[in-house]
Automatic annotation (TrEMBL):
The gene is plsY. This is Glycerol-3-phosphate acyltransferase. Probably interacts with PlsX. The chain crosses the membrane at residues 6-28, 59-77, 83-103, 115-139, 159-180. Pathway: Lipid metabolism; phospholipid metabolism. It is a multi-pass membrane protein. Catalyzes the transfer of an acyl group from acyl-phosphate (acyl-PO(4)) to glycerol-3-phosphate (G3P) to form lysophosphatidic acid (LPA). This enzyme utilizes acyl-phosphate as fatty acyl donor, but not acyl-CoA or acyl-ACP. InterPro entries: G3P_acylTferase_PlsY. The keyword Membrane applies.
Amino acid sequence: MSFDPIVAIAAAGAGYLIGSLPFGYLVAKANGVDIFSVGSKNPGATNVKRCVGKKAGNIVFLLDAVKGFIATGWPMILEGQSIYYGLIGLVFAVVGHSFSLFMKFRGGKGVATMLGGVVALMWPAALVGVLVWLAVFYSSRYVSLASICLAISLPITNLIIGEPAILTWVSLALGLLVVVRHKDNIVRLMKGTENKFAKK
């Protein structure tokens, strides 16, 4: 199948706009909270869960993951399961989530959106990533560390199971973006000042 630049541009534009939808901000706002002013000031599911409530945080995680799934899935369906257009949609969805057009280019760290797209595109890596996240989180109670380990696991899993090289490279790039977005968390982890997610 030949590469269609029109579809590629559409996948990129739609991916960015879908990724930019600020569900964390909107859900928190609906509960009377400005998520950019409380906790870590991040509109991701973890901060929403801490500052608004468990139900709100879970809703945000689900909606952010659905963003990634839709942005990745629709161009693949349109173009007969072509992974290239799906990858474009995924990358731009994560960028949109991290640098939202609607939030003055502020945004979350991209974990849920990335995971949603990975489910659509490379589900074995997504499954391993979720298992890694659960293992790290329940042994440490650090959401940030679990998310970083999830991101790192994706390209490693793709390499081990022999996925196409393009999937490994893109998952590596997205993983690095997620790690960079957690740079402040990494500093706090090294200093021993990172907040653990308390057991309820």
